[in-house]
Amino acid sequence: MKDAVIIGGGLAGLSAAWRLRHWDIQVLESDQRIGGRIMSETRGPYTMNWGGHMFAGGGSSTVELLAETGTASVKIPGSLQGMAMNGKYLSTGPVQTYPFRFPMPLSSRASILKTGAKLGKDVLRYTQAVRARAGETGEQRQQRIYDFENDRTFADYLGPLNKDAAGFFLPPALRSAADPDQLSAGAGIGYFSLIWNIGQGLGRAILGGASTLTEGIAQSMRDRIDLGAVVNEVVQNKDHVVVRYTKDGAEHELKARTAVMATPAPITHRLGVNLPDELRDALAQVKYGVHVAGCILTDEQGPMPYDGTYGIAVAGKSFAVALNQGNITHGRETVRRPGGSMMTFSPASLGSKLWDVPKEDIVKQYIRELDEIFPGFEGTVKEARVEKFEFGSPYCFPGRAKLQPTLTRPTERVFLAGDYLGTLYTETSITSGFTAAQRAASLLSTRRQSLTPDAA
Ligand SMILES: Cc1cc2nc3c(=O)[nH]c(=O)nc-3n(C[C@H](O)[C@H](O)[C@H](O)COP(=O)(O)OP(=O)(O)OC[C@H]3O[C@@H](n4cnc5c(N)ncnc54)[C@H](O)[C@@H]3O)c2cc1C
After folding, report:
1. Which residue's alpha carbon is nearest to atom 39 within ligand 1?
2. CA of 320 to the centre of ligand 1 (A)
3. Which residue lies with its CA nearest to atom 48 of ligand 1?
4. What are phi and psi of 4, to 5 degrees?
5. pLDDT at 199
6. Ligand 1: residues whose CB is within 6 Å?
7. Nearest CA to ligand 1 atom 2
8. Where are the domains of the chain?
């Protein structure tokens, strides 16, 4: 019997596996690659990236994991204030001046300024409400974040927006994976707080690409990771857990003293057949938006208009944001070398619209639209690929707050991990993986101490 079986080899499962690495563990991952929604590849000095790419900094579980695994990270160089709208690209000067510099009628400017003032005020209110308080636990703070304005949608909060105001404010909000009529008001406001305060939010990149972290952990325990192992059922018994899975067409069964389920919530709901009813019910209510992401490697020989900018919000295209991955390389050079890497990202309804479109066609559309924003871009393309993620990111909807106590209440020997347990994406995956590992390790240590030396 194994000490622990970990179901899912994404960031949450690997974080749990890392912390349990001195026990007898097995990781079961359905895909043929490790990492889940962390997906990057290097090309010379550049990284092509299709999944999570911005990581938490100071004082976070992410920083702990990076330090423990010896993975180098850097503060993301460049601004997040690029924006393309109504045929113009802006990246410098205060964002508050953008409505005056993009071509648009006076009425649109007034609408943007009015909404911006309201959002600015509530981002401040949000920042104060969710600030860490002395003596409270991370769970208490997380509950407060979910509770903030959780009884109405972001669309209700914003009120009607004209086309330009929608183009100005919606691309950043869509990155939450939900449209404004799905997202809670608090989560919409919180998203602007996250991106307007980059230093305090997700502001770090992993050198060599995000997969350097996941592949590095996997490499340190490669004989204990089963790829292509599709788990079908997890049954919790009084003193052990039974995991049934299929690999290479054959059925297998694994027994372990504990299990960490690090699959997306709807999958955990399906596999965890005898988890408490209330928990299974809460798992079924967690909501995700799809993500479609592209990455384009370029071979330009000189500077590009987007040099020095990492994040570019885009209005009126099939993607909401472009992320200049090449800037992680260029931002640390004294002389700009040729080439670059640009990620495009279609979350929420933008991703749904592309879901059934063949990937080759999406690649063409992304390149064409980037060329409209940055004339000449198409001529620099060297390689491009698109990936689709059904469970792109979980989002906070009205009513989500009341599920949190149930989702985080420990069960007997099956512990849950994954980004759906909090609001900070990769940081939540890692924190929840650490917590699940800690609970499993406590149970395993208690058992060892109650055994006679011979039996142990
Ligand atoms: C395009 C994109 C951009 C993003 N950008 C950011 C960002 O900049 N910053 C950030 O913090 N986050 C970002 N995210 C979100 C971030 O990637 C995720 O929050 C995080 O990677 C989720 O990790 P996880 O381990 O919780 O889940 P997952 O990565 O989904 O891992 C779950 C694993 O379980 C496996 N699995 C599923 N079913 C089974 C089964 N039956 N048996 C065995 N295994 C199974 C899956 O194959 C997968 O490997 C982004 C996501 C995407 C898609």
Report:
1. 30
2. 20
3. 36
4. -150, 140
5. 46
6. 7-13, 28-31, 36-38, 51-54, 202, 230-231, 262-264, 267, 291, 293, 345, 389, 391-393, 418-419, 425-426, 429
7. 51
8. 2-38+59-71+208-275+411-450, 75-206+288-395
One-letter amino acid at 1 equals: M
**Token pair of 225, please?**
């990771």
Letter for the amino acid at 64?
E
- Angle at Cα 51 formed by Cα 75 and Cα 418, nearest 5°? 95
Q: Choose the residue to mutate in 60, 204, 393 for probing ligand 1, maximizing ligand atoms within 8 Å of C-beta.
A: 393
Spatial distance between the Cα atoms of 453 and 456, rounded to a whole number of angstroms: 5
Structure tokens given for 328: 């992680």
Q: Is the CB of residue 145 less than 8 Å from the CB of residue 423?
A: yes
What six digits make up the tokens of 55? Answer: 């990581």
**For residue 387, which atom of ligand 1 is closest to its CA?**
1
What's the whole-number average pLDDT of the chain? 94
CATH code of the domain made up of 2-38+59-71+208-275+411-450: 3.50.50.60
Angle between helices 61-69 and 11-19 (to 10 degrees): 60
Which of the listed CATH numbers 3.40.640.10, 3.40.50.2300, 2.60.40.3230, 3.90.660.10 matches domain 75-206+288-395? 3.90.660.10
Which residue has the CA at smallest separation from atom 36 of ligand 1?
8
* 33 neighbors 215 (Cβ within 8 angstroms): no
CA atoms within 13 A on the CB side of 202: 19
> 27 has which bridge partners?
6, 225
Kindly report the number of other CB atoms within 10 A of residue 390's CB atom. Answer: 12
Atom of ligand 1 nearest to the CA of 391: 30
Residue 426 identity (one-letter amino acid): T
Place of tokens 């649109």: 108
The CA-based angle 308-313-317, given to 5 degrees, is 125
Among residues 352, 43, 397, 34, the alpha carbon closest in space to that of 187 is found at 397
How many angstroms is it from 391 CA to the middle of ligand 1? 8
Amino acid code (one letter) for 228: G
Q: Cβ(447)–Cβ(292) under 8 Å? A: no
Task: Tell me: pLDDT of 452 over 70.
Answer: no
Do 208 and 66 touch, CB atoms closer than 8 A? no
Q: For the chain, what's the residue count?
A: 456
pLDDT tens, 108-149?
999 999 999 999 999 999 989 888 899 998 899 999 999 999
Q: Return the structure tokens found at 145.
A: 């974040």
88, 103 in Cβ contact below 8 A? yes
Residue burial 51-69, b: 16+ Cβ < 10 Å; e: rest: bbbbbbbeebbbbebbeeb
Q: Is the pTM value of this prediction over 0.90?
A: yes
